[in-house]
Amino acid sequence: MYVNMKSLLKSITSGKEYPLNEVRFTADNGELLDVIHDFDAIKKQNNISREYFSNKRSTINGQPSGGVWHFRELVMPDLPESEIISKQEGNTRLYRSKKISAWLGLNKEKFFLKHEGENPTGSFKDRGMTVAITMAKHLKQRAVTCASTGNTSASLAAYASEAEMPGIVLIPKGNVAVGKISQALAYGTKTLVVNGDFDDCMRLIREAQEKLSAYPLNSINPFRLEGQKTIMWEILMQLNWQIPDWIVFPGGNLGNTSAFGKALHEAKELGLIDKLPRFAVIQAEGASPFYKAYKNNFSGLTPQKADTIATAIKIGDPVNYTKAIRAIKWTNGIVESVTDEEILDAKANVDAAGIGAEPASCATVAGMKKLIASGEIKSNETVVGILTGNILKDPQVIVDYHFNRKTALANPPHDIEATIDELKHFL
Q1: For the purposes of burial, counting CB atoms within 10 Å of the CB of 115, is it exposed (0-12), middle (13-18) or buried (19 or more)?
Q2: For 73-108, how does the pLDDT look when each residue is reduced to its tens digit (9 = 90+)?
Q3: In this model, does residue 195 exceed pLDDT 50?
Q4: In the chain, what is the greatest distance between 2 CA atoms, to the nearest angstrom?
Q5: pLDDT tens, position by position, 56-78
Q6: For 369-378, what is each residue's pLDDT tens digit?
Q7: CB contact at 8 A, 239 and 227
Q8: Would the CA dihedral through 262, 267, 273, 274 be positive or negative?
Q9: Is 280 left (phi over 0), alpha (psi -120 to 50) or beta?
Q10: Which residues does residue 279 pair with via DSSP β-bridges, in sequence order?
Q11: 99 burial type by CB count under 10 A (0-12 exposed, 13-18 middle, 19+ buried)
Q12: Average pLDDT over residues 285-306
């Protein structure tokens, strides 16, 4: 176990502290936990600065690395390198697109899309999973588990296999895209299909942790969020530490909202930035409890029965609600909701630009469109959108759109005879 630890677990409201090597996911009173690092000691030991990370050439277990573990000093500074379980997650591209920026009405020089679908299993979940599975192994847990609408199960299965640990995933019946569940099956985890929705699966996971000592890898696990923080730090490095006006991303269980807020708050505390960008968290209208709470000044969260085509954010009772409120307040952020129709139109534009992303990712772009139209986001502001998952995560949505929709962007296949004249017609 760790010696001379620079980190601990801390309740986000009461401030009660717990050792990092104690297996727990909430405080004694049920509050969520943060991983807290001794930044004074870390900064003194490593001379942390913008230049430190920009010039650093990192390796993990003898292999060139970057992404999550490039920021190891701010993620898990006490962890022995030999224990890290990594698939070199991170290092995802920051795209520009003339097509999408024109459709949105943004300056193409100031619009970027960070594509987390380029991670090993095709979603941002790998960033959190590398840290959480490493801690599970370090804490000598027998098995890992999660509730999932698809992406978490794929990531858990791949990383559990890498760690040689048994994995169990709970998936809501009829609510997971085939591209996602196929990954969990292929990577060898035990997949249990629950007759209920994601929130029922999450309730079972929390009970399993309390009563069966199963180690959960959902975002209630504070180590997951430590990995997801690195999306923000990578963006800052890719922009040469120039702070964008806006960072826009989808909200489901609100793990990213929480992690991104924590990352930027810590970056300011460390002197890496002098101000925070504004957040815009985008929810699907049919799964928008955080949006409704925001509109009511966060007077309380009312869970809802989630219903949206964007399966990755089809969550009606987000576990990270209180952490996400903190992130919105830190960043003077806003929350917006978009319809499934708006998501599909945005997805058609993202896909047609040759970038491509799953529906939940495209809630980001649909939200931008809405916020630009309302004047909340100005056309000359610098905006970074997060695409959270790969285009092939939900192929049926693509097929249904292009076969069945009558829009300018619908692109159905055409049957032709095997003649050069017919081919000439299309060329």
Answers
A1: buried
A2: 999 998 899 999 999 999 999 999 999 999 999 999
A3: yes
A4: 76
A5: 987 787 777 779 999 999 999 98
A6: 999 999 999 9
A7: no
A8: positive
A9: beta
A10: 247
A11: middle
A12: 97
Torsion of CA 349, 353, 358, 363, to 10 degrees: -40
DSSP 106-123: --GGGEEEEEGGGSTTSB
Looking at the chain, how many residues does it have?
427
Position 294: which residue type? Y
Q: For residues 257 and 248, is the Cβ–Cβ distance under 8 A?
A: no
User: Domain 94-120+224-404 adopts which CATH fold?
Assistant: Rossmann fold (3.40.50)
Is the CB of residue 120 less than 8 Å from the CB of residue 88?
A: yes
Q: What is the mean pLDDT of the chain?
A: 93
* Residue of 288, 285, 289, 276 lying closest to 247 (CA atoms): 276
**E-strand stretches of 16-163:** 17-18, 33-37, 58-60, 63-65, 94-95, 111-115, 144-147
Q: CA 210 to CA 231: how far, in whole Å?
A: 31
Q: What is the predicted pLDDT for the residue at 3?
A: 41
Distance CA 9, CA 85 (A): 21
Cα–Cα distances (Å) from 209 to 24, 89, 146, 185, 315, in that order, read: 9, 27, 10, 23, 20
